[in-house]
Structure formats: structure tokens, C-alpha cells
Amino acid sequence: MEFRRLTDDLSVSPQIAANDVAAIRAAGYRAIICNRPDGEGPDQPTFAEIEAAARAQGIVACYLPVESGKVSDHDAMQFGELMRKLEKPVLAYCRTGMRAATLWGLCEASSKPLPDILGAAKAAGYDLGALAHRVANSGKLPVRVATASHDIVIVGAGAAGIAVASSLLARDARLDIAVIDPADTHYYQPGWTMVGGGIFTPETTARAMAAVLPQKVHWIKAGVAAFEPDNHAVILEGCRAIHYRKLIVCPGLKLDWGAIAGLPETLGRNGVTSNYRYDLAPYTWQLVREMKRGRAIFTQPPMPIKCAGAPQKAMYLSSDYWERSGRLQDIQVQMFNAGAVLFGVADYVPALMEYVERYDIGLNFGYNLTAIDGPGKVATFRRVLPDGTVESVAHDFEMIHVVPPQTAPDFIRASPLADQAGWVDVDQNTLRHKKFDDIFALGDVINAPNAKTAAAARKQAPVVAHNVLASLGVARGQAAYDGYGSCPLTVARGKIVLAEFLYGGKVAPSFPAWLINGKRPSRLAWLLKERVLPPLYWRAMLKGREWLAKPEIVG
Fold it and tell me: Where is each Beta-lactamase hydrolase-like protein phosphatase-like domain found (predicted)?
């Protein structure tokens, strides 16, 4: 017998027998709901048998039979009424548990977000994706669903989304493209490290979304609730359906601030900051300027994260400022990294270690931040010891720069597009979905083993643009993405270690070593980061100009 938990109050299961009821009672359940009509199968006990066994165990049993594939709005309403009245927890069952899960999903639709419902059901082994329309419509059968249709629909208007839209239009200006994104502002996120270091002002990293979207695209200013790949449709919040011939998925990732206990309540005060948010990067620079002595902690969560070098970029720029202002000897700089290495590509570690030693930074590997007491200025870390035991370690701080855990967005993780870890499941070379041929993806949301950086998206966008057009029959051959990523590691104001690499950590410099040696700190690489990359982003990448990003056509 298998209990599949949907919430603390409800689990569902396949058909139970009368002799299972004692075990159900022992497992703590206080009520049973039968959602399977009597006589549906030749080996099925009647509800009367189940009810008698339940009564003998002191459990309430209720009969709410639903015909397979015909769950009505009234059925869902009755299920919700039972859940409100019955003592918890409750076990609901039918032939497989699917009808019970469906009833729960529909009765919760008016109070829970669609991704939460689909995600909980998926975790329990039930795919409620076919109900996306109804759940998005507060659990009711839609009387009329507004729809639109486009040749190409792009989910997400971040760096990847706008770049691929522009690359498509640069190849064929006649394309009918819609971009779905609810945001009013587009951000140049690679600049936030420089804001936290006092080099850029925050305003230079933000522009109105309407100003950066290509003029020829249709901007659908809405949030995505779910995908119906078999129907070639994206379901928006509010139940509107957008149909497509080809879908490109690039919504970025989710910063899970709430995964660290106490963090949301103290962000932006009590010395707690992060360059991973536009409004907090200026606070980083304020803390750096004001700090005179004490411990400064910089954290890095488990991979994958957006721009794996960003946590230590903040650390180096802060340390450089304290060194220049004569305070570094009074400040203890500590890095707590959940991983096991300073940087994932070993070729660049020696140059980074020179600055770790120069700034006398304490490196602590295998430490994952789990809680912050802002007013008390204490950070708590979880560490797994060599013998497998887990210890909790607390450290006080004057300032702490936090990088939150990062996942795919909820509506991605709960969708048929996701792999077991929740990322969009693509072929790492063509960036085409492994199951759905008319879907492509790029940027931070994919499961390809590349670094999640804007530089990676810049290289991926032309690959996806070409392959989408090839799939439409208007381009020849397949373009291949080689895993390129770049991370300009700001080790000091005016010096950068320019890390560039492909899949497998193979070093892949864009410039000859006599011009920029990526394995050594470089002034020229700093000028590239400070003066060249921002205009390259706004005026080239987002405009479909593929400087140093032309895709390789392999067949």
C-alpha cells in the first residue's frame, strides 16, 4: 500500500482493501475518502466493506464517487467541503489515486498558485498538466478561453529572450514572434557586481522593457502558469492560452531567498546584503565604505547558480577597497562556500589564490548557509563531516554578502518540460528539447552543463535562432553550442582574471595571450568589463548583432 503525500493534511493512494485499514490507522490517518464508484473493477471491494473496516478502527469513511475522466466542478466543491469538515490527516483513494489528486487540485485552485498545485502533484507522482486551464480558472471549467497564436513564442524577456528574438528577426524580419514577460524593467545583471563595488551606478544597469524589446515582436505582459506541449500552448495566469508553432523557453531562474531561515526579514539591513538583487547592490557598497573592523563573510550556495564567480567578485572588490583605505588589517574576510573548490575551472585558480593570499582571506569549503539572525549578527552554516555526520556552525559578522540557493522557476519545475532536477531538458548541443521537437530553450533555465552567465546566453541565442529556423524549413543544417561561458573575475579595482571555457572546463580564450592572458590578472580585461561589455550588451547582443558569437553549423 502506497500513501502519496500532497499536503500535510492529505495523501492519496490507489485502491485500498478492507485489511489495509488497520495500517492506515497506524500511519496516523483519521479519515478516508473513497472517490471510486462501486463496481468499476472486478477485483474492487465495495465502499461498504471499506466503511465497516474503518468504523472498526475508529476512522470516518466518506463516499464521493467520481467517474473516471469526468470530474465536475460540483465534485471538486464537495471534495473541498469534506476536507474542511474531516479530522486531519485524510487519505483519499480511487483506482490509481489520479481522481483523488485531481479533486484536490481543483478545489485548491482558488487559493494556491498553479505551479504549487502542479508541483505538489508531480512530486506525488501525478501529472495534472492537462488540468492547467481549469486550475488557472480557479478550478472551474472555462466557458470561454481567450487564445492567441504566433509562429514563435518566447517565454522570458531577459538577456537570453531578447537576444534570441533579435537574432531571429535579423535572419527573417517577417517572423511573427511573441515574447511573454510580466516585468516592466530589463536589467543588465552582470553590472550589479560593479554597483556593489562602487564602480557603476545602479541606474546604468536598468532600462524600460519597452525600450529594449525588438519593435517587431508582440509583447505579452503576463506571467506563465503552465505549458501544454501536446496542444502547442502556453497557459498564462488567468487562463489565457497562447499557441505556437515553435516555443523558446528562457525565463531565467528563481532566487530562493526563503530557503535561508531569517534571511528575507533582514535583507538590506543589519549588515546583510547581496549583489544578486538590484536594490541591494548599492547597500553592499554602503557597507563596504562604512566598515572599519570586524568579520566580513561572503557565502556561496550549492551549484548551479547564476554566475558562479559573482560571490567571490564581491569579496575581492570589497577587500581591495579595504586594502586601499588602510583598513584590511582590522577586517577578517571569510568565504564560506558550499562547494569543494574556489572555481570550477582549475586553470584560473592559481591567479585567484594570489589575491586570496594577498587579502588574507579565510577559505571554508563545504559550508552551506542555512540561517541568519540579522539583529544578532550571527550566520549559521551546515557542514557534512568526513564520517557523514552533520554539524551546525555559527559565526558572527559585521557584514555578510549572501548568495541565495537558486532553482528553476516553479512553473518550469512543475511542467512536462523539466528533468528530474527541475531544469528544462535539452540536448546540450542543439538546445532542442529532448522530448518535444517544437520546443527549444536557452539561458539559465536549461540543464546543459555550462556556466549560467550572460556570455553563455550570448553564444546560445544564435544557435537557437538558427535551429528554430531550420526546424521551420527556412534554414539549412544544425547549429551547435559548445558550452562557452565567460566569467570576468574582478580580483581588484582595475584588474580582472578573464575566465573563458567550454563544456568540460576546456579553456577557450577569445583573444591572443599577448593581448589578454586570461590566466593572469589584466588591466585590459578590466577595461573590457567596464567599458566594452555594457555597450556590447545593450547595442549588440540585444540587437541581434552577433560579434564573436556566430554559430557553428555542423550539418
Answer: 3-110
How far is Cα 407 from Cα 154, in angstroms, rounded to an integer? 20
What is the SS3 assignment for 532?
Answer: helix
| Angle ∠(5,11,17) on CA atoms, nearest 5 | 125
Look up the CATH number of the domain holding residue 219. Answer: 3.50.50.60
Query: Are residues 266 and 186 both part of a single domain?
Result: no
Q: Is beta strand 241-249 parallel, antiparallel or unpaired with respect to 233-236?
A: antiparallel
Q: Kindly report, residue by residue over 511-522, the tens digit of the pLDDT.
A: 998 899 989 999
| Nearest alpha-carbon partner for 461 in 523, 543, 350 | 543
Total domains, the chain? 3
Asked which of 404, 433, 463 is the last residue of a domain, the reply is 404
Residues labelled as active-site residues: 307, 487
Same domain, 372 and 242: no
Q: Is residue 168 one of the residues assigned to a domain? A: yes
Q: Give yes or no: residues 397 and 439 share one domain.
A: no
C-alpha torsion 290→293→295→296, nearest 10:
30
- In 100-205 the beta strands, taken as DSSP E runs, fall at 147-155, 177-180, 185-187
Cβ proximity of 317 and 193 under 8 Å: yes
Tell me if 122 is assigned to some domain. no
Query: Which of 112, 141, 163 marks a domain boundary?
Result: 112
Averages of pLDDT over runs of 10 residues in the chain (555 residues) are 91 92 95 90 82 94 86 91 95 92 90 88 87 72 67 97 97 96 91 96 94 94 87 81 96 91 92 94 97 97 92 97 97 97 95 97 97 97 91 97 93 92 97 98 97 95 97 94 95 96 94 91 93 94 87 80
Of the candidates 475, 478, 455, 477, the residue with the CA atom closest to the CA atom of residue 549: 455
Please answer whether residues 325 and 289 qualify as being in contact, where contact means their C-beta atoms are separated by less than 8 angstroms: no
Phi, psi of 418 (to 5 degrees): -90, 150
Same domain, 235 and 296: no
Return d(Cα 214, Cα 162) in angstroms, integer: 7
Residues 6+ apart with CB under 8 A from 487: 307, 308, 309, 451, 453, 455, 499, 500
Contact assessment for residue 312 and residue 403, using Cβ atoms and an 8 Å cutoff: no
Between vectors from CA 294 to CA 291 and to CA 299, what angle results, nearest 5°? 85
pLDDT of residue 323: 97
Predicted local distance difference test score (pLDDT) of residue 64: 95
Taking the model in full, what pTM does it have?
Answer: 0.81
Q: Same domain for 419 and 547? A: yes
- Within this chain, do residues 278 and 241 fall inside the same structural domain, yes or no? no
pLDDT score, position 239 = 62
Q: Looking at the structure, do residues 397 and 417 belong to the same domain, yes or no? A: no
**130 found inside a domain:** no
Q: Distance between CA atoms of 516 and 485, rounded to whole angstroms?
A: 16
Q: Are residues 263 and 364 in the same domain?
A: yes
Q: Tell me, what DSSP letter sits at residue 361? A: P
What's the domain range around 61? 4-112
